[in-house]
Amino acid sequence: MNLLVLEGVSKTYGRGHGEQVALCEVSLDIGAGEMVTVYGRRQSGRSTLLRVAAGLERPDCGVVRLDGRDLAERASAGLAGRIGYCQRSLGSPQGETALEQVALAVLARGVARSAARSRSRAVLERVGCASLLTAPPGELNASERMRVAIARALASEPRLLVADEPTIGVDLLDRDAILLLLRSLADEGIAVLTSAADSTGFLGADRALSLSDGRLHGQLRPEIAPVIPLRRAASW
């Protein structure tokens, strides 16, 4: 069984002449340990797709399932912690350091403070931020902020990690390292769903799909999808 399944998902914003179709009967399967990247131009609906897949927005119609359970059902409320959404904004005044930013996400789940700090330190080290534990969020560059965002999402030990344009604003020399970090997480068994505005964001993906006019194109099921030849073995 695939970890994440979208079936006939549609989403429209506005009404009348201002109506904009973001998603039109989109179906998609993602397996554990798979990295899938969705390409689309600006306002193509790719961010909407990722937010719907993460359970942050409800589709107008269709269903989103994680581990076979509908995200829209009340009984599935416990699934929220199994989905990690990378939010780049580090604006919380309570999180004065990178470590505290991540710890806040762990504390919100009811974990004791000492255990939260230990878990936060571990995930920050995992994403290559061991030297940034005490760094103020305002002093981090785009690459470092993305790594902290990934760490914050990993803190809940999710089965699905969603990252909308993870390399946006990141220096060219650092982009591959971010994508290869996500690839390494997929290799550990986490399903990873990302978006990209150009082909440089495909590195490490098992499948690269495109979204246009609200419709998703490409190999939508993992069992029939070849690995794209952009993936390479490298350390993050």
Give a concise summary.
This protein is of the alpha/beta class and 236 residues long.
Properties at a glance:
globular, 5 helices, disordered C terminus, four-stranded antiparallel β-sheet, 236 residues, six-stranded mixed β-sheet
Structure commentary:
- It is a single chain.
- This protein is an alpha/beta fold and 236 residues long.
- It has a domain of 158 residues: P-loop containing nucleotide triphosphate hydrolases (Rossmann fold).
- It has 5 helices and 10 strands, in the order βββαβββαααβαβββ.
- Helix 2 packs parallel to helix 4.
- The radius of gyration is 17 Å and the shape is globular.
- The C terminus is likely disordered.
Residue-averaged pLDDT: 87
Percentage of residues assigned to helices:
25-40%
Tell me the major beta sheet.
6 strands, mixed
Task: Just name the CATH architecture of one domain.
Answer: 3-Layer(aba) Sandwich
Series of H and E elements: EEEHEEEHHHEHEEE
Output the structural class: alpha/beta
> Helical stretch count?
5
- Separation, N- and C-terminal Cα atoms: 30 Å
SS elements, strand count? 10
User: What is the topology, as strand order, of the major beta sheet?
Assistant: 6-7-8-3-9-10
Envelope shape:
globular
* Model regions low in confidence, pLDDT < 50 over at least 5 residues: 225-236
